[in-house]
Every structure is written in C-alpha cells, then in structure tokens.
Amino acid sequence: MTVTSGEDKIKWWKAAKFGMFIHWGLYAALGRGEWVMYELNIPVRDYERLAETFNPVRFNAKTWVGLAKAAGMKYIVITAKHHDGFAMFRSQAEPFNIADATPFGRDPMRELAEECREQGIVLCFYYSHVIDWHHPHAVHNKYNNVWDYDTDSKHFPTYWNGLVKPQIRELLTQYGPVGLLWFDTAGGLSKEDSEELVELVRGLQPDCLINSRVSHYPGMGDYQSKGDNEIPMYGEDSRIWETPMTLNQSWGFSTKDQVWKQPEAIIRKLVHIVSKGGNLLLNVGPDAGGLIPDLSAERLREVGAWLSVHGEAVYGAGASPFPYEMEWGSVTAKPGRAYLHLTSDNWQSELRLYGLKNKVNQAYVLSDASRTPLETAQSYDAELDHHTLAIRLPDKPANDCMTVIAVDIEGELSVDTRVSQQPSGHVKLEWANGRIDADAKTVEWSFQIVAPGTFDLELVCFQKEGASWDEAFREGVEAASGNQRITAQPKPDQVIQNSTACQHPYSEVHSHLGTIVFDRPGTCTLSLRSTLIRPKSGFTEIWQADPVKLRAVKLVKRQ
Ligand code: GLC
User: Where is the Glycoside hydrolase family 29 N-terminal domain (predicted)?
Assistant: First the structure.
C-alpha cells in the first residue's frame, strides 16, 4: 500500500478497506481488557508495579505484520498509549514507557515500523489523548482516576503540554511516515485544544490522517470513526467512515472472553461495510507474552484466504449503488462491474435483483477461474418502471463463506434508487432512508411495492447489553399508511442471531407491531412515530450510542 500525499492523502485508506486494530498494553498482564485499571480502581503505584515484570519476549514484529498481511489487511493501528497512560514506545516525555520501565527494554513500535515498511503495510498509532489514569493532571469529562487524584486540583495544561504534545511529536518523528493517528474518547476537550492537536499533527506530518475522535466537536479529523462495533445504515453518513470492531467482545487481551466471531461472519460484515462505503478496523488483543491469540490468528487467516480470491470485489471497490440492504448479502461495485456477495444461508437456484437498469453482458462466479457464464435474464415492467435481473446460480455455494457473482454491465452503473420490495416479498425501511421530522418525532418512507399483499410490521431495534427496553419504550409507537393506523407497545419479541449490521454490545431485536395491507403495486408510503427518533444530522456524531437505537421497520409479506 502506498501512502499518497496532498489532496489525495486519504486515497490509500479509502482503497484499503480492511485494517488491523491492535490493543496491546500493560493491561494485557491482567487479562481482563484495557479498562481494568479503571474498573478495579487500581492505584497508580500498584499499576506501575506491573511494568516491573512486563517482559513480552515472544513479541515478534515480523509475525504480527505477517499475520495482518495474511489476513488481507492493509494497515495496522496499534495502541501507542491507551487510557492507562503507559507508552508502548520509547518516550523521553514520560518514563512510564515500555522501553524504560520494563525488563523488556525494547521499543516494539520501532520494530513494527521497520517490519511494516518491509512488508508493505501502513503503520498507524492509536493515542488516548484525553483519558489518562496515570497522569495526575489528565482531565476527561467522565472517566478519571478519582481514586488517586483529586479532580478539582488538576491543572490540565501540565498534562497537555507536558505529555500529550511531546509524545505526539515523538510518534511523528521517530518512526517514519505514520498513516494515521487514531485518537479516542475526547470528552471534555475544548475545541481550541483539539484544533491545536490537529495543527501539531499537520505541521509534523501533513499526510498523516486523523480520525474524528480527536474531538467531540462535529466534523473534525479526516474521516468518521463510528461508535465501537457500530455499522451505520445506507445513506446515514456524509463523511468517509470506518467501523472499529472486536473479534471477540473485548479490545485488550482477555482470558475470559471466548466469544469469537467466525470467519464467515467477519467476511459478511466486511463486505457489508464496504457496500456502505466504509472501512473495517478489526481488533486483536495480544497477550502479555507478546502473542496474538491463536483463535484470533486462525480466523484472520481464513478471512485472508477468502480475500486472496475475492479481493477484487473489496479493495478499491465502491459502495453499493442501491441505498438499502439486500436480504441475500451485499453489493459492491467497480466501473463496468457489480459484485453480488451472497451468503450461503438459504441458497437458491436463482438470484433475483431488482432495479439494475444496465444491460448485463455476462455474469460469473468470481472464484471460477474459467469464468463459466451463468445464465441471466432481464425484464422490464413499463407500468411499474421496474427492472428485474435473474441469475441462475450454481447448485451449491462456491465456498462456505461468501460466493461472489461478478456482473459485467454495459456503460456506467445505473440503478433505480427508490427503496424497493425485495424479491422475497419483504421490505426493509431504515431510518436513514426516510424523511425524518425530529421535532414531530416521525419518519416517513416511500417505497416500491411489486407484489401487494398483507404484511406483518416489525420494528427493528439495536439494544445495548444491559439497556432497559421498557425504559426506552415508555411511550408506544404509532405506524400509519393512508387510513390504516397501528398503535403498539413494542415488546422484544425476537433476538436475531447472526445479524450482519449488529454485534456485541448490541443485539438486533424485532418487535411485532401489527399487520398492514398494501393492496396495489406501485409507490406506497408508511410513517412511524416514536420518541426514539433522532435527527439525521445527529447520526454521524453519536459514537457513544443510545441504549436502544431504532433502526428500521420491516414489512414481512404473508404468504
Ligand atoms: C473505546 C474504549 C477503548 C477502545 C476503543 C476502541 O473508546 O474506551 O477502550 O480502545 O473504544 O474503539
């Protein structure tokens, strides 16, 4: 991957699509995630003592970078300093660092920088610029070390000028070109201070990208980091974005957490994110010995094996031209070609795609080296202005993860961008696709019905672990279309396993609201009222997301 400069400086990142997040720090020694110091109120003096025996001799930069490469990842973002304040690099600004405070005595960031250069991976640093539980003068608006320090007697500039700025300078002058600086948890930082930090970075390395978490003020940085594990809706973001995601349910090394995402799920989520125009930054949490857990490595290699065959449909690929989710998988695109990524669930003999206007020249399974043409048929219903493409699929999926069908088209990709009923008969209406009136707490959609009938109305929500459903829905919701009106008190009726867009700490919950009839084909409308409706402009900046998030209404056609 080559880092470009000037106006195009984000080009490499946009094309890269897939990066490795590494949460590695002193906390690995305790094996219960990177928040352990805060959660257990570990006094600074005790926490510092962990450094005395921290000796990750099994750390091998070549192996880590080699794993990122084998996984098909194009860049690495590693925690140079996390909230515990321990620098994982040699720092003149603070002796509490891996090179000076541990028997290990090496600078792993330097070793990684060299190895990344060697293997063609872009090195990037995570830096916790506001939360620092070790430093006596760090101030965050919520998460401070209150067991050692008295917040009122803190002098923030001592921390800011004495530690943050010098360490950022070190990171940007000691390791060669840095692809991006990943800041985090900016709560309470003033606009001026965040701007100053941005200026500092720009002055030292103008081509180094900066993520949006550098500040809580909207629009800062070069792109949007979504909330942890958050995948947005189609059309939700106006800025370039990424989803930071865990491979299990933790960022830092955890001995207890063994809930791992399977390779198939990771691939599904990756292509889903790419189909929405984003990047996936997928995390590993190495242990105190310096090893990336085998269970992570195995999964990543499987993802890489799939990408080595299907990379063409991912790297540098554009978002789906369709502004809504497909039930069978995701769409990505390149000039003259659309890629249909199909999960192996409910494999059928034929795939139907609505709304593609171009003439199809040929369709084939991307992993089929001989490109055996698949039978296709295109039709157009002039009355409904409705295009259908039917593709005869092979008897079996081409692999267990995802089968990609390449569809070569004539001319530039042109699709019907109205939200359409899916060939199965269902319609999914996401908030971002509706007209939102935040004051009236309503959202209204218009969409195309091809096969009329009676529909079950399901509310789709993402509920955060531990969040109270009843509290979120103290008030009921109201759905209406023409003179049909449904008032309901949503119940958590069904938790969806294997949701593509939703993962821990959220789960996708469906509630049955009632039934509704759309008895004619053509354009239909539906509106919904709920106190949980947010203005669309707010979506992009909510990275500490709501406990229960409204996501969509699904119309499930009764057979
Ligand atoms: C959160 C957490 C942090 C983690 C990060 C990853 O902000 O505070 O521990 O590093 O998200 O996105």
Answer: 10-312
